[in-house]
Amino acid sequence: MSWKIFTKFFWVTVGVAITALGLDLFLVPNKIAAGGTSGIATILHYIIGTPVGITMLALDVPLYILGIYRLGLGFGLRSLYGSVSLAVLVDLFSLYVPVPTRDPLLASLFGGVMVGLGLGLVFRFRGTTGGTDLAAAILRTYTGINIGQLLFLVDGIVVVAAGLVFHSWELAFYALISIFVFTRVIDMVQEGISYAKAFFIISDHTSIIADRVLTDLGRGATALNGRGLYTGSDREVILTVVNRSEVTRLKEMVYEVDPRAFIIVADVREVLGEGFKEYGGGKDF
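Now predict its structure.
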């Protein structure tokens, strides 16, 4: 096994463990069925007493069979490791971890953060835990509907079912809060927290500004061909990416050269390449 494959297995396992802790510490004990097979398993746990992890795995089995049939062997096998390990850890941790709060709001928030962090790590390292993301991928082959829309539909059905079964729409609302939180955290883990800024600089003195960016800041810059639709004149647009600490310095530098310059500043979630970080990906495991 190569080092990259081992690293992916390691971080997928860490992500699965964090997800399991989020479920056992916060969501399941407080009857918060935040969508997915974990939400269905939570409902069944309180109706008939079945273990959450085993129920999740049982729900995933027919999805694997159908997934291999519709999506190919590789997709089904890639889902298998994450879902089996999640099922095992959910039931294992439930025997030992304490329940830190019975406040449903705190549980939905902290549970959402932990589940989002865990799933974000799993997805970032090209793993999956099966469940509704596998179901949505399968349904897409039949319906052609966007996977995001299908996930929202499936999770919505689970949340409504929880409200009916637990006779509490408040719990359904808390589940929606948890879903909102963990989807935002998943995005943050995969895309990164905004730590850089992209500058689009429009000026009549682009060559001087570009030279200052290259020499004074030590950053790369790219000249894009543009045309002013109002004036009809061709002009260059400078694109460069800088760290947060360099934002003010770059603004001052531009306006020293051209007080009439037009600047667009945008958040950048991730920058790969010279001066920032290198891509650490590799082949799927």
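Residues 3-27 form the longest helix (25 residues).
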